Hints:
alpha+beta; Alpha-Beta Plaits; two-stranded antiparallel sheet; 4 strands
Amino acid sequence: MAFIPTVDAAKCEGCEECVEVCPVEVFEMQDDKSVPVNADECLGCESCVEVCEADAITIEEI
C-alpha cells in the first residue's frame, strides 16, 4: 500500500508544522510553502493533515 501526500499551495500558510511533525521527512519548505519532496516515503499516518490548520494537505491511498 502506498500513500500520496499533496499540498494545496494556494491554501498553505507556510507554518512549517507539517515539516516538523512528519516522522519520515516527507515535506520541505520551498518559497515559503510546504512541498512533499519525499512523497514516496509517506507512511500515511496523517500527522501532517492533523496539524495543518489551513487544511492544505491531503493524503491519497493507492
